[in-house]
Specification:
three-stranded antiparallel β-sheet, TIM Barrel, eight-stranded parallel β-sheet
């Protein structure tokens, strides 16, 4: 498959593995890249020292392109960029912040820059800032989400109409048929999170992976909308938040309830009741833990079958 995304990243298939905190370590990134997609190390839960370790190990595990996802609001953002420069990793996906703040500097160092957006308005700002591509993420996605609550099927054509740069669809994409649907709507590629979170190479706790395979339709919902919207699996922590919000809890009380390390507690340490379990709606379609390479292979095979079906 050759298109603007495969050419931009020098990869075989336009499948990008999302840079998810506590899930996207070097093993997952290397496995996806080796399978022909683009693996990303999720730096949003890493100190600079940990990121450097993961980059070093990823470079040893694959000779194919990989990148790093860096939330721009993260306290170590500049140190993480410096580490990437030092190790020659010049492909960065930025999120959770203003792309204009760092894009010019990153481009001066030869980076390919991709920014994650939740609206066409933000995509236009990214194009004006000089990014090379955007990830348009619908509110079906797991983890932190846009306040607009725009679905992927609505968002992709809106963004495609608004910008000329390459477009990657995210949110609710876990299969080859979903990939084809996104590309028919105008995407050049897809970013996949939830299905890779449940892969064998994911750094998530086995208990979280198992929980993903048990999710049914309606088992995830947006939560903490007054702080920053995040899609979570319903569990004891989610219910605590819901009860607090329903009785009118203030921002300070909600922040105290969230505390620190809640996402690590759930996804990395495996406390599936008291921790945050960030996953997308599409988890209802995931019924087993698989090797990442097998996931890529299945998606491409299903994509090819579905494409033939609609052209017959």
């Amino acid at each position: 498959m050759n298109n603007r995304i495969t050419s931009l990243f020098e990869i075989e298939y336009p499948i990008i593995q999302a840079g998810m905190i506590w899930c996207s370590g070097w093993r997952l990134a290397a496995a996806v890249s080796n399978a022909g997609g683009l693996g990303l190390i999720g730096a949003g839960s890493m100190t600079p020292e940990v990121l450097e370790e993961h980059i070093t190990k990823c470079k040893a595990a694959t000779n194919r392109p990989f990148g790093v996802n860096v939330p721009l609001i993260y306290q170590y953002v500049e140190k993480q960029f410096e580490i990437m420069v030092r190790h020659g990793v010049k492909l960065v996906f930025t999120s959770a912040g203003n792309p204009a703040k760092y894009t010019t500097w990153l481009k001066e160092f030869g980076f390919t820059v991709v920014h994650v957006v939740a609206s066409a308005r933000s995509a236009v700002k990214c194009e004006q800032a000089g990014v090379d591509a955007v990830v348009a993420e619908g509110f079906e996605a797991g983890g932190h989400n846009g306040r607009e609550e725009t679905t992927t099927f609505t968002l992709i054509p809106l963004v495609r109409k608004s910008v000329q740069i390459p477009l990657i669809a995210a949110g609710g994409v876990a299969t080859g048929r979903g990939m084809l649907a996104a590309m028919v709507l105008g995407a050049d590629g897809v970013q996949v999170g939830s299905r890779f979170a449940a892969s064998e190479e994911s750094s998530a706790h086995q208990a979280f992976k198992q929980k993903i395979t048990e999710v049914k339709e309606g088992d995830t919902m947006l939560s903490l909308k007054r702080l920053i919207p995040v899609r979570l699996i319903r569990n004891a922590f989610f219910q605590q938040v819901s009860d607090s919000e329903n009785r009118g809890a203030g921002l300070e009380e909600l922040q105290q309830l969230l505390g620190k390390g809640r996402a690590r507690l759930g996804m990395f340490d495996g406390n599936t009741e008291e921790g945050e379990l960030e996953i997308g709606q599409v988890a209802a379609m995931i019924d087993r833990v698989q090797p990442a390479g097998e996931i890529v292979k299945e998606m491409i095979e299903e994509y090819d079958i579905a494409r033939k079906e609609i052209t017959q």
